[in-house]
Write a structure and sequence with these properties.
Layout: E1 5-10, E2 13-18, H1 23-29, E3 53-56, E4 63-64, E5 75-77, H2 81-96, H3 112-119, E6 136-137, E7 143-146, H4 155-163, E8 170-172, E9 179-181, H5 198-202, E10 208-210, H6 214-222, E11 227-232, H7 253-263, E12 267-270, H8 271-292, E13 298-299, H9 304-313, H10 327-343, E14 350-356, H11 360-365, E15 371-372, E16 375-376, E17 380-383, H12 384-393, H13 415-418, H14 425-439, E18 457-464, E19 467-475, H15 477-489, E20 496-500, H16 517-522, H17 525-539, H18 549-559, H19 565-571
Parallel strand pairs: 1-5, 11-12, 11-14, 13-20, 14-17, 19-20
Antiparallel strand pairs: 1-2, 3-4, 3-5, 6-7, 7-10, 8-9, 15-16, 18-19
Helix pairs in contact: 8-10, 8-14
Length: about 575
């Protein structure tokens, strides 16, 4: 019987490592750091960049430690003069064909190439020569693609093709002309990109970044004629602190609200309140379909990247989508109708800014379907990262801020609204409301742990008022594809489906703080951020969306009831087939 472990030596240390793991992993076990650049654990393990090279005694040349597996008796050296020189040359060659506008780059200070250049003391570029010049693709509302900063690591390709199963980008051309692009070298705006932003999260440099719109926010904040309202998504408060060197998963709600007030917003409201509206409407819609023979399974529609995906790839299944708008769009509609009337403000003077963990929300915001009375529900979407930049531009010392509360009454939200930001959270929140509605009781059992956790697909059967309801929560578009194929083939027997475009849900959205490949390999970032939201839920006085006092009041005074004509007019929408390619 073969041993499950092998013994090898790395930099003079004896290491007992599991058979089949790489030298890179074995070195990490004993605290030996080997630099990487193209490596992204579980996503891109191809050894393209060669930064992780090491020497193995008895072998010619270098071994690529991210793909070379350990062997019994292997003797490895990670920082010999030859290795160090080779790494320096590799870095030099990469930098020689790279834009050097680090001071004005959106990734300055959080660029893996920049950190390696500093670490290995690259003070000048020996191999100066001709540089490839590429156009900057900024036609999409969500993503800017600057190939002049690309290092051909292919991490974005792996995220798009392997994790999301989209394949909107790939390597084209050969040799010096090689680059990452789309079919026919067209804009991301014109191909099958869903704007999920997972490519941005995977990029080690500034070659991919969100389309920044904070200058527009600053202009409106200075405009005395504009009434500027900001709303913040649940996942933002679980990650914003990371931009200020706070621990992953720190709840910074109070400091975030204080910072927003100091930036000059007229009102600071909570998208969790919008999530409570969404849950109330969505639960009602599900009950209607379930009890009256409507189209099942009903699929959530709060993730715009997912909605764009189904419009392009499964248009025949669009009737399965909930007609509910996403939380921030619902909230925007309420702010420009009910709130505007209540406060006596011309809705055309209200400028709604949504702070989102998601860059696809930038695309969603400008959809024609997201208008009421001819005006957009939301006027601007900025990411968690963009909000952090605004706070820094204002020279606000975030970590020293006191905690303050959201403005009333639109800052009142429930624990159910908070968990919207993680995979399974929408499902759990909807089930809490659905069970109370179907039983006519205020039930104490409100935790549906069957749909919690980091698995890409979570299936469960729940009993509500004597009804066996089969549900599934999927995150990541590759997993969404599996569920859609089941539905398309008639093999699915679910009644309710939650789908989030980003693996792990909104906490891992394309607009969240970008963590290095090393951090992603060593920490469960999704869990840390999700735990923050579950903690908020557990500490909340009210944990069911339909019990939110402001929700009750608005239904009573303005919307009448969930699913009413007025509610449909403001809070619901429709979707239609979208072409994958517009070229």
């Amino acid at each position: 019987m073969e041993n499950e472990f092998v013994t090898l030596t790395i930099d003079g240390q004896e290491v007992k490592a599991k058979k089949g793991i790489t030298i890179l992993e074995a070195a990490k076990q004993v605290g030996i750091d080997i630099p990487t650049l193209c490596f992204l654990k579980g996503i891109n393990e191809v050894g393209d960049c060669r930064m992780c090279i090491v020497e193995v005694e008895g072998r010619r040349g270098f071994a690529t430690s991210c793909i070379q597996t350990v062997e019994e008796g292997m003797v490895v050296h990670t920082h010999t003069p030859n290795v160090l020189e080779a790494r320096h040359v590799i870095l030099d060659l990469i930098i020689s064909n790279h834009s050097k506008d680090c001071l004005t780059c959106t990734r300055s200070g959080n660029c893996e190439l920049q950190k390696l250049a500093t670490k290995f003391n690259v003070l000048n570029v020996e191999f100066e020569g001709e540089r490839t010049q590429h156009k900057i693709d900024e036609l999409s509302p969500s993503i800017v693609r600057d190939f002049n900063k690309c290092i051909l690591c292919r991490r974005c390709i792996a995220a798009c093709k392997n994790v999301q199963k989209i394949g909107a980008i790939d390597c084209i051309n050969r040799g010096f002309e090689s680059c990452i692009s789309t079919v026919g070298d067209h804009s991301l705006n014109d191909v099958n990109c869903t704007f999920c932003g997972q490519c941005i999260q995977s990029c080690p440099t500034g070659a991919l970044h969100e389309k920044e719109t904070i200058d527009d926010v600053w202009i409106k904040l200075k405009d005395p004629e504009s009434y500027v309202i900001v709303q913040t998504a649940p996942a933002v408060r679980a990650a914003l602190g990371e931009e200020f060197q706070m621990e992953i998963g720190t709840n910074v709600t109070g400091k975030m609200v204080t910072a927003l007030k100091r930036l000059g917003f007229d009102k600071v409201f909570d998208t969790n309140t919008g999530a409570d509206f969404t849950i109330t409407e969505e639960a009602n819609e599900f009950i209607e379909r379930f009890s009256k023979g409507g189209t099942l399974p009903m699929i959530t529609s709060c993730s715009p990247g997912w909605v764009k995906y189904i419009e392009m790839n499964y248009p025949e299944l669009i009737p399965h989508l909930s007609t509910c708008k996403s939380p921030h769009e619902m909230f925007g509609a309420i702010l420009k109708s009910y709130y505007a009337e209540k406060e006596g403000i011309d809705p055309r003077k209200i400028y709604v800014v949504s702070v989102m963990p998601c860059i696809a929300k930038k695309f969603e915001r400008q959809r024609e379907e997201m208008k009421n009375s001819g005006i957009y529900n939301v006027d601007n979407v900025i990411t968690t990262r963009e909000l952090a930049r605004m706070i820094k531009q204002a020279n606000i010392e975030f970590t020293k801020l006191e905690d303050t509360n959201f403005d009333s009454p639109m800052g009142e939200a429930t624990g159910a609204g908070a968990i919207f930001g993680t995979t399974g959270g929408v499902m759990e929140a909807a089930l809490r409301t659905a069970q109370d509605t179907l039983t006519g009781k205020d039930l104490e059992k409100i935790d549906f742990e069957q749909v919690r956790g980091g698995e890409g697909i979570k299936k469960a059967t729940v009993n509500i008022a004597g009804n066996e309801i089969k549900v599934v929560a999927a995150s990541g578009l590759a997993n969404a594809q599996k569920i859609m194929e089941e539905i398309k083939s008639g093999k699915a027997d679910y009644q309710f489906v939650e789908i989030m475009a980003c693996p792990g849900g909104c906490v891992m959205g394309g607009g969240q703080p970008i963590r290095s490949s090393k951090e992603r390999a060593e920490k469960d970032i999704r869990k840390l951020r999700a735990d923050c939201l579950y903690s908020i839920d557990e500490k909340s006085t009210i944990r069911k969306s339909h019990e939110n006092p402001i929700i009750k009041k608005i239904y009573k005074d303005y919307l009448e009831k969930p699913g009413s004509h007025k509610a449909h007019e403001l809070l619901h929408t429709e979707y239609e087939k979208r072409e994958k390619y517009n070229i």
